[in-house]
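To close the section, here is one more complete example, presented without commentary so you can practise reading it yourself. The ligand is nicotinamide-adenine-dinucleotide.
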Amino acid sequence: MPQAPNRNKEPSFRESVDMMFNRAVALMDLSPGLEEKIRVCNATYTVRFGVRLRGTIHTFTGYRSVHSEHMEPVKGGIRYAMGVNQDEVEALAALMTYKCALVEAPFGGAKGGLRIDPREWEEHELEQITRRFAYELAKRDLIHPSQNVPAPDMGTGEREMAWIADQYRRMNTTDINAAACVTGKPLNAGGIQGRVEATGRGVQYALQEFFRHEEDKKAAGLEGKLEGKRVIVQGLGNVGYHAAKFLRDEDGAIIIGIIERDGALFDEKGLDVEAVHKWIASHGGVTGYPDATYHADGAATLEAACDILIPAALEGVINMSNADRIKAPLIIEAANGPVTAGADEILRDKGCVIIPDLYANAGGVTVSYFEWVKNLSHIRFGRMQRRQEETRHQLVVDELERLDRYLGDAWTMTPTFKEKYLRGADELELVRSGLDDTMRIAYQSMREVWHSREDVRDLRTAAYLVAIGKVAASYRAKGL
Ligand code: NAD
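Output:
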């Protein structure tokens, strides 16, 4: 197994993940047997099934890969894309293992994929295909609340998760925990507030945490706050749209570039993310959007000068052919595997700081974890505590109002204090608070390793060290 990439050959996605893993374990004291056990993918199931559509039978190929069962259920999204293949699904499953370990979500790693272009099919056809795929996986326990819990990924969303949950329920009519067989469901089908935007929200929280640390900003040659930072986003889908929207609207970042399949939009003064998103929804791409400069060669915009680059579409977009032209001093990997192992070395040598995928996009699985817990406990978060919390806060407010009357003009309550303080946290607030806490703690665990060990030169290696250490501890506890 090579330790460093051959600079003449681009590694595949799975080779990239293996190389990053190898780079980290070379700095650890694991037995070779345990190292191999953690690295390899436990099993990949390939299924080919036929669905009668438009008068003929169409055969589809799907995968569900289980990388590590050191904790169960295993967890990982289902992707719908034409590029889906075994190598990709296995790489994504491995990333899930490390991601869950890093953010302390109690799952093993898995991933699924279906080789399909969802845009080619009508909604009712997609439902038939999804239900059949779900049936094939569920009958082998590859969808199961206590063994294997999928979630959305590229090309899938709430709608597909609702079909999967319903299919599982039809096959397991007496399973009281059926809703927990998949996460990312719509609210009215057992979902949780804040899941749709969770991955993008996590990217925002990750950047907020990065900007709290002077030493880390200095490593990237940046200073100040997120406010005013120039950002380029690739992929205005679920993850990219929410990340760009929150960074612009809540942190004051300037989204100067948006790259999509059909080209890129650029405006040094800042793009209106909401307007671009609406345009894409109604026109199928960014082409023709009136209020920005359009570049047909979208990928070239990855190389434009900016402060933060957010690849949020697919893997391998920053590779050995363009890495040395990337100007961003900070890259946050909202997508899985957007920087190949070869490009990673080139960028690190240039001084670019990369916030790695296994941390950066962990917001999705974190909130999926909350949803799974909600489904198993059969109660919405906050339902028991909210009014009681408000009653206790009312006691404090009553006392303050008494003081207010007593002190007269010498002291008065801030006008909005009462309203804000009295309101008990609802589910969305609790989800956001849990996600923010998770992203902060995980970042701190990585940066501590990054700054305390001379042999750890980047955040990615640090993230792998933390994650692999946790997986290894879990295997050791099982006596392996
Ligand atoms: P999505 O399908 O909602 O969005 C992907 C976007 O990328 C689309 O707008 C698409 O048009 C665009 N795109 C596709 N190919 C492109 C190209 N060549 N150039 C530019 N843009 C292109 O998918 P998503 O759920 O946002 O996932 C994006 C990435 O984030 C994937 O790598 C996925 O694995 C990762 N991720 C997603 C989640 C989640 O909760 N959805 C969680 C963790 C990681």
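Once you have examined the tokens, check your reading against these statements. The CA atoms of residues 392 and 465 lie 44 Å apart. The two ends are 23 Å apart (CA to CA).
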